[in-house]
Specification:
- The complex is a heterodimer.
- Chain A is mainly β.
- Chain A contains 1 helix and 10 strands, in the order αββββββββββ.
- Chain A has one helix at 2-16, and strands at residues 18-28, 33-39, 42-48, 57-62, 68-70, 72-78, 81-87, 91-93, 98-104, 109-110.
- In chain A, strands 3-2-6-7-10 form a 5-stranded antiparallel beta sheet, with no helix packed on it. A 3-stranded mixed beta sheet of chain A has the order 4-1-9. A two-stranded antiparallel ribbon of chain A has the order 5-8.
- The longest helix of chain A has 15 residues, at 2-16.
- In chain B, the strands form 2 sheets. In chain B, strands 2, 3, 6, 7, 8 and 12 form a 6-stranded mixed beta sheet that branches. In chain B, strands 4, 5, 9, 10 and 11 form a 5-stranded antiparallel beta sheet that branches.
- Chain B has one domain (38-187).
- Chain B contains 2 helices and 12 strands.
- By secondary structure, chain B is mostly beta strands.
- The chains are: A mainly beta, B mainly beta.
- Chains A and B meet through α1, β4, β6 and β7 of A and α1, β1 and α2 of B.
Chain lengths: 115, 189
């Protein structure tokens, strides 16, 4: 019985340090697809058509690893042409929160090759 | 038995606490714009300008290092601003005529005009979207090509702006890299 209690206590301690946030991305750029979207080392979605949005992506980690602050990275694709871009702004996801990132025509981006 | 159950419960919780598999993408540092289309994509227009003046009834061609600020419009939309290839002016016998260097030999200024973005440094996602939709690609078909103006460097160091009124139809054929628009003699007044 002691072993069971100890195990449950240990499991409780471990699970209590664990938390998650939610992330959603909208593509509101005209005439282009966004592919291989990622937020830090988190793969968000493989492909978004104009006007499409991702489902909620659960970002789980130890609580002290939050907030997760990253740029959004993606391939922009149109007419068979492709460019790798990052948003200029960084976005912050706190545990227990839901972060919505909407990429529009006016969103400032960086082409890393030109930096 | 209890110990086994306890161990299993513990293992379950520990494994549940491990980081999920998010399959992180690894991006290379390359950020080139490239095409995976197997067809040849249209990239540029080529044309030649032969500017000249009339001295009496004689044609004398303008001699300068390059034509500057050649403004091109396609279907009434800006295509870009270019310079011609540099000319080796030393090979021509020259004379000065109203602040310009001229020669009896024909001078030809070649221009290659690929699509240019309005800005060298794009800053917005919409700007890149425009670039991807236009860059390297022009659908096959007929277009109206215009040379709106160009500048000639004069002897006193100032630029003379010339508006040549070159308006021609040009055909972009499928699977071609470029289109030769033509060679144009332009009278400079």
């Amino acid at each position: 019985m002691k072993t069971i209690l100890a195990s449950i206590a240990l499991a409780f301690l471990l699970s209590s340090c664990w938390d998650e946030g939610k992330l959603q991305v909208y593509n509101k750029i005209h005439n282009v697809k966004l592919e291989n979207i990622s937020f830090g080392d988190i793969s968000v979605f493989s492909s978004l058509l104009p006007g499409e949005n991702t489902d909620d992506v659960l970002v789980s980690d130890f609580r002290d690893k939050f907030p997760k602050v990253h740029q959004l990275e993606f391939y922009m694709v149109s007419n068979g042409n492709r460019v790798y871009l990052k948003t200029k702004s960084k976005y912050s996801l706190e545990y227990g929160e839901r972060l919505t990132i909407t990429i529009t025509d006016t969103t400032e981006v960086i082409n890393p090759l030109l930096q | 038995m209890r110990k086994i159950i306890a161990l299993l419960v513990t293992l379950f919780f520990i494994s549940a606490c491990q980081k999920s598999d998010f399959s992180p993408y690894s991006y290379t540092n390359e950020a080139t714009i490239y095409s995976d289309s197997k067809t040849t994509l249209f990239r540029e227009f080529l044309f030649i300008i032969d500017p000249y003046v009339l001295i009496g009834n004689d044609k004398k061609f303008i001699v300068c290092d390059t034509l500057r600020n050649v403004v091109i419009r396609l279907d009434n939309k800006p295509w870009g601003i270019f310079s011609s290839f540099e000319l080796d002016t030393s090979i021509f016998q020259k004379q000065v005529y109203t602040n310009l260097l001229v020669s009896t030999a024909t001078t030809k200024y070649s221009v290659i005009a690929p699509y240019l973005t309005k800005s060298d440094t794009l800053k917005t996602a919409g700007g890149y979207a425009d670039l991807l939709n236009n860059y390297l690609t022009l659908e096959p078909g007929n277009y109206i090509f215009e040379v709106i103006s160009f500048d000639i460097l004069q002897q006193d160091g100032t630029l003379k702006k010339v508006k040549p009124f070159i308006v021609v139809p040009v055909e972009v054929k499928e699977n071609t890299r470029n289109a030769f628009v033509g060679e144009f003699e332009v009278l400079i007044n």
